[in-house]
Specification:
With about 45 residues, this protein is mainly α. The protein has two helices and no strands. It has one domain. The chain is rod-shaped, with a radius of gyration of 19 Å.
């Protein structure tokens, strides 16, 4: 039972870390033009 006092805060911190990384990726424009990059690779000489 004592391990829950450690695991619950760690899991909450992990969720905040993942959400922060997702927010950062969206804010930096990582998902702006997903299909364009695939086409650029195919058309690059």
């Amino acid at each position: 039972m004592d391990i829950l006092y450690l695991l619950i805060p760690l899991s909450v911190m992990l969720v905040f870390f993942i959400l922060g990384g997702l927010w950062w990726a969206i804010h930096r424009g990582q998902f702006e033009d997903i299909e364009g990059e695939g086409e650029r690779i195919l058309k690059d000489p």
